[in-house]
Amino acid sequence: MTNSSALSPETWPFSLELLATPAYMVGGAVRDALLERRREYLDLDFVLLTDAVKTARKIASRYKAGFVLLDASRQIARVVFDQATADFAQAEGANLETDLRRRDYTMNAIAYNPHTGELIDPLNGYADLQQGIIRMVSPKNLQDDPLRLLRAYRQAAQLGFTIEPETLTVIRQLAPLLGQVSAERVQAELAYLLNTPDGTPWIIAAIEDGLLQTWFKSAFSPPFQGELGGSPNLQGELGVSPSPPFEGELGGSPSPPFEGGLGGSPSLQEELGGSPSLQRQLGGSVVSTRLTAIEPSAVVLAQTWADLGNLLSKPVGDTLKTSWLGVAKLATLLSPIPEQAEAELLNLKYSRAEIRALTTAIKYLPQLQSSQMSLPEQYFFFRGVGQVFPTLVVLAVASGTPVEELAPLIDLYLTPDDQVAHPTPLVTGTQLIQTFNLKAGPQVGKVLTALGLARAEGKISTSAEAIKLASQLLEDQ
After folding, report:
1. Can you give the pLDDT at residue 289?
2. Same domain (yes/no): 253, 331
3. Which of 138, 213, 340, 412 meets the CB 3.0–4.6 Å disulfide criterion with 421?
4. Backbone phi, psi, residue 353, to 5°
5. Cβ within 8 Å of residue 150, ≥6 positions away
6. In a shared domain, residues 343 and 382
């Protein structure tokens, strides 16, 4: 153990002396420390046999940190520091081992005593960590909280692990129970999968294993598979074959996810360590060839347009986890009918910004895939899609549209002062109202739109010319 490990009290935001005895660190912090995975933000979990909430209050008071009582009946509290959170929970059962045996997977059922430096591992979770295996503690534990079923796929993606065969069998049997879990919790797990470099094959595995059937009904209907099927164009350009979908050279994605934009990487099979068990789980899948092609499509685009790759890595909103590339992945799981897609997203409690981004992408994708647009069509297209454009381009390429057909539009979008993609008004609505003694209303908006299009077409370039054209337009009405 190094001094930088979360197991070392020197890294904690509070003194070990304030921690009651006995007390044990458990969960992801222990697992990641044993795997030597470093975290910028500390997320600590402690189990105490007595006085869990009292201890949390004392620590919060001493350091003037935030205090949250998460569950009074189960005696769980959280202390929030600037760069860390620490959860304190009363042990479930008479002793620590009883508590550990109620956890989801053996790798998460390892405890560490910071007072003695001892690891407590009654379920041999450390051996599973060393082998890269996710093994259930018991079927009942998964049944008690069905979100744990989906969590196995998320943690497999994040850690590069495989799911032990007996555990996978139980997950498939219990899969319908995930429909009983709150939408917010399911969405949080999906966010991790969508933003994790190796998340895509595990999303497909979760669909094939029946976990997401309640939430993405379109992904289980025959039209879905036909709608999202591959094309020779796409397969030739990206090396993606429809069956099985993970044997080709898929490009992959960087690690950590999207840091510094998108770049090339070895094949997906190499990134997954050539895992035969995962390949068997996913082999022959045709659930979504297009979902498989999203990340390699983004890589191909970023190799020519680095700025596009950087935009795809950014979140949809400042407080949202979903990136624009994640939006592209999520769109492949939804109905191609915007209204139906919106219903699925509302059911999953997505934000207005995310729903707007996804329905816009679905609505405008057919237009982007159609024949070349005229300049006026391009103008209104860019007005409609706005900042969703990078997501749309990835979806189009993943669906088989040749990159060279999209290149002119991409160049327009990446030119900040281009008046087709990013129009700026020569006059404002207020100026029109004052100059022509108009009332605020649709008429003003129509004139402004016509002026914007005229500028994009090169017919006007100054405010005076805009006012003159506005006068003509108003006379013609």
Report:
1. 84
2. yes
3. 412
4. -65, -40
5. 178, 186, 189, 190, 206, 211
6. yes
Residue 181 lies in a domain: no
Which of the listed residues 131, 161, 177 is the one where a domain comes to its end? 131
Which residues fall within 8 angstroms of residue 99, CB to CB, at 6 or more apart?
26, 47, 91, 92, 93
Classify strands 111-113 and 84-90 as parallel, antiparallel or unpaired.
unpaired
Q: Report the C-alpha dihedral over residues 252, 254, 260, 262, rounded to 10 degrees.
A: 0
* Residues 160-213 pLDDT 10s: 999 999 999 999 999 999 999 999 999 999 999 999 889 999 999 999 899 998
Share above pLDDT 70 across residues of the chain, in percent, rounded to a whole number: 84
- Per-residue tokens: 61: 């008071």
Say if residue 239's pLDDT is above 90: no
CA distance 413 to 310: 14
Nearest by Cα to 326 from 241, 257, 416 = 257
Angle at 247 between CA 197 and CA 153, to 5 degrees: 40
Instruction: Please give the tally of structural domains in the chain.
Output: 3
Mean pLDDT of 315-331: 92
Domain residue limits at 439 = 429-476
Tell me, yes or no, whether 231 and 345 share the same domain.
yes
SS3 86: strand
Which single residue is written with the structure tokens 């390429």?
397
Residues 234 and 286 in one domain: yes
Task: Determine phi and psi for 373, rounding to 5 degrees.
Answer: -90, 145
pTM to 2 decimal places: 0.81
Query: Is residue 109 in a domain?
Result: yes
Q: How far apart are CA 230 and CA 217, in angstroms?
A: 20
The reply to whether 30 and 120 lie within a common domain is yes
Give the pLDDT band of residue 371 (cuts 50, 70, 90).
confident
Give the residue ranges of DSSP H helices in 370-441. 375-385, 389-398, 403-413, 429-436
> DSSP assignment, residue 257?
T
* Rounded CA separation 24/27 (Å): 10
d(CA 7, CA 115): 11
Q: What is the Cα–Cα distance from 13 to 220, expressed in whole angstroms?
A: 47
